[in-house]
Design brief:
mainly alpha; 0% strand; elongated
């Protein structure tokens, strides 16, 4: 997110709220949650790329339990992003 966009959205959240300080803090927390989720999804994507490399190399599933945990991690990260995006959208 660009700095100007963050300032504009935080200002609008503060202007609409009864408690501007709390509104800005809530908005900041939502943006931080989105950024953290984005990092997690990047890490998961890296792991998926490594898994794909293994599958293409020898056609076997390396450590099926690891693959299952990886996919569960993907689902959890997507849920975090979905929740954070919904919160940001509801605030508009």
């Amino acid at each position: 997110m660009q700095t100007g966009g963050y300032v504009a959205e935080a200002s609008l959240a503060a202007a609409r709220a009864e408690d501007p300080t709390a509104a800005v803090a809530d908005y900041r927390a939502m943006v931080q949650a989105l950024m953290a989720a984005n990092r997690q999804l990047g890490w998961v994507g890296n792991n998926l790329n490594q898994l794909t490399w293994h599958l293409n190399r020898d056609g076997s599933w390396p450590q099926p339990d690891t693959v299952r945990r990886l996919l569960e991690g993907v689902e959890a990260a997507v849920e975090v992003v979905d929740t954070a995006v919904a919160q940001v959208v509801e605030g508009r």
